Structures are given as structure tokens and as C-alpha cells.
């Protein structure tokens, strides 16, 4: 199998400054073939299959993190550099502030780690700053739930957040590698994902969820990839492998191909098969659960020369990866030269 370029979205013309701007965030619509791209102070929505621009919103400040709202048909929830959280409605081409920082002078940059998690079961967003001790929840619609700070039962630095796509569960990852599952309504603890002391972890860098099975994939900042089966009251680790020495920054399930893709901090992209458990009465072989998939590596020089006709040096590495939850589409942002590409695997 190979990666195939579907569309090349060159966004260097956005804005009126003399220096070309670079896309710094992207997100797919959960059900439609739409992709939103953040560049400068603009949030632009494209048809992911044709590359046509659908809408553009000036949101006032660059985006640090963003995601489509799973409870609203056509809105993106974004954390901006001015520390506000905004809902950006592409239908109305309007934005509204959901949360403002206590200190008006507070600023962050696109490289700041801010953790964001949305659930399809409630119109709320959970967010928190890297290595802080608390999580804040706020409504995703204007006039919705007021901001509430949640103090978890563990006084440990928080390094990531995720919501289960089907169940009322919020996952909070801590700096020692432990992951706690909380009920999104009561914040009671459901269970804990933790390994024995012989395997050292330093905290989840990314989460992914299987679309039908109760499997959770975790990419650790130590470069370890893990799979957990959470279908029972006592979750078990069913797979583990070492991806590399770099932190894993993205993990995503490719739904049509039933493969897992990981992105490391150095830009290394790898694709994995998961071993099917033939006998449910026997525990799986954890070390053999993940197998490298037979997919060609992405040829970055060829892609950039084909699309832009320009030599690029030094060679940019892949900065961010987003995968559509239902379609055979992925979008990749490069670290420099503001190239943004949509891919499928064939």
C-alpha cells in the first residue's frame, strides 16, 4: 500500500503581510469530508476531497489547539494564543468566547502544550495546561455551562486529556505514566491504567480509540506504544512495543484499513497492524500485538517538488498528523515552508 496525495492546500496567500504565514493546526469534521486549517488569525474550512475553500473566519488570534465540536453540526472549538476558548461557527461565520483567562495579559504560543478533550455526550470541552494539577470544563455553546475547575483525586502533574468516543469517560494522563478514567458527570474514578514498575513510562503524548472494540491506544512520551482492553471492570494491557526513542505526539486509527498510525516528535511516521486474538480464552501475546504494516514511507522531497515546484532545504519534517475518523483521509502539516497536504492510503 502507498500514500496518495488527494489535495495540496497551499495557504501562503492568506493574510496581507509580506511574510508568508504557515498553517499551525488542522482538524477533520467527525462525519463529513471537511477539514479546518488554522493559519495566522484565520480559520479556514475546505472540502477535503476537492480542495475548495468553503468558509473563512478571522478569529482575532492564532490557534494553539482546536477540534470540531461533536455535539454541534458545524463549529470548531479552539484555544487561542490569548488563552481564550472560542466556538467558531462556519455556518454563521461568527465566533463567540466560551472562556476568558483570569489574567487578561496571559499569552501562550502555538508551541505551548494545551490539552483539549470533547465528548459527543455533552456540549462541554475539558481543557488544561501541561503539567498543571487541575482540569477545567466549560460549555461549547454560548450561554452554556459556566467554567468549572475540576481537581482530580491525584495531586500529580497532568500531561494529557481524552474523552471516550462512545462512553461517558474522561481519561486524564499523569506524568508518571498512570492514566485515570473518570465519569464525565460525577468525576468518580472508573478504573486506572497502570503498568508494573518494571516498565517505565513518563506520560501519554497521544490517545486513539478503536471504532468498535473497547481498545484504547496510548502513545507515551518515552516512545512506547500501548494497547489496553477496557471492556471489563479490570482493564488489561494487550499490546506494547517500542516505536523509537522520541516522544509519540500522535496516534490515530485508520478505520477503513484497520491500521494504526503513529507520529513521533522527530517527524517519523509509522503504520502498524494489530494482531487479531483468535482465542478469547487465552491472553494475547503483548509483545506481538503490534506489527509494522507494509506501507511505503512518505517521500517528502517528491511531494513538495511535485506540488510547489521548488527545492526545499533543509528538508522539513512532519509536524502534525490528523486522521479522519470515518474516511480514508489524513492531513499532514510540515514544520516549515507551510505546505499542508491531504492523503489517503491505497
Automatic annotation (TrEMBL):
WD repeat placement: 241-275
InterPro entries, alphabetized: ATG16 (IPR045160), WD40/YVTN_repeat-like_dom_sf (IPR015943), WD40_repeat_dom_sf (IPR036322), WD40_rpt (IPR001680)
Alphabetized Pfam families for the sequence: WD40
Alphabetical keyword list: WD repeat
Superkingdom to which the source organism belongs: Eukaryota
Biological process annotations from GO: autophagosome assembly
UniProt name for this protein: Uncharacterized protein
Organism this protein belongs to: Quercus lobata
